[in-house]
Amino acid sequence: MPLASIIRVLGITALFATTVQAQNSRPFRDSWFWGAKVGTLAVGTNTTSRTWAPSIGAEWLITRSAGGLWVFADHSSFDIRTSVDDAAASGGQREVDVRNLRRFGFAAVVAPRTFGMIRPYAGLGMSLNVLGRAAAAADSAGNDAGTSVRTEIEDRRSRAAVIGMGGVQAQFSKAALFTQLTVTPASTRFLLNDGPMVGLELGVRYNFGSSVAR
Q1: Which backbone phi and psi does 184 adopt, to 5 degrees?
Q2: What is the CA radius of gyration of the chain?
Q3: Cα–Cα distance between 66 and 110 in angstroms, integer?
Q4: Which of 110, 165, 177, 201 could in theory staple to 67 by disulfide, Cβ–Cβ 3.0 to 4.6 A?
Q5: Terminal CA-to-CA distance of the chain, rounded, Å?
Q6: How far apart are CA 130 and CA 51, in angstroms?
Q7: pLDDT of 18-73, one tens digit each?
Q8: What is the pLDDT of residues 51-66, one digit of tens each?
Q9: What pLDDT score does 6 carry?
Q10: C-alpha neighbours within 13 Å on the C-beta side of residue 125
Q11: What's the rounded Cα separation, in Å, for the pair 156 and 63?
């Protein structure tokens, strides 16, 4: 093969490799991803053992070169019971019906390396956790909860908390599949207080364009 042809082939090969490398990073860097997810969330109370509740949600990932901002909203469906202190109730405990959970939050995310099309990431942020329903039940004698107990239940129906997350994303041009884990520590001031809330999620993200003003 003539030297000129060899040089031409090597040049085309180098150009192709450079283009592929740039395309592998460009769909993530400085991008705005919209995503949808499904999963399951482990919740529990002081009277109900931990339950894996189905969840569905939406999220947004705004990236830079090696990280970004993750914003999410999701809904988990369940119907369980907990209890709060009530001196007027039989046994000194008032049962509370607890249904469904909505979470809204954000986290700063780091994703410094890729392994082919796979990009691991991790983040730390805040989550607002709001129960859809928290209602005191009548005790065994048929007595309803007093005002102070209902006020306490309402106060413990929602709580802001730290949330940690980590996952992996597989990039296919502008679309990406992901799986991730979320963890929110337990709080005695929240009605879901039997250990941390742990979420396992699967979803898809799509890059709708640049996150940098041109």
Answers
A1: -125, 125
A2: 24
A3: 6
A4: 110
A5: 46
A6: 17
A7: 444 444 445 778 889 999 999 999 999 999 889 999 999 999 999 988 889 999 99
A8: 999 999 999 999 988 8
A9: 47
A10: 20
A11: 35
Residues 6+ apart with CB under 8 A from 72: 57, 58, 59, 60, 103, 104, 105, 106
pLDDT of residue 22: 42
**Structure tokens of 64?**
């830079």
In the block, which residue shows the tokens 């031409």? 8
How many CB atoms are closer than 10 A to CB 168?
14
The overall longest dimension of the chain from CA atoms, in Å, is 99
What DSSP line would sit under 92-124, residue for residue? Answer: GEEEEEEEEEEEEEEEEEE----BTTEEEEEEE
- C-alpha–C-alpha distance, residues 183 and 41, integer Å: 10
Convert the pLDDT of each residue in 144-189 to its tens digit.
778 888 899 999 999 999 999 999 999 998 999 999 999 999 999 9
CA angle at residue 10 from 6 to 11, to 5 degrees?
Answer: 115
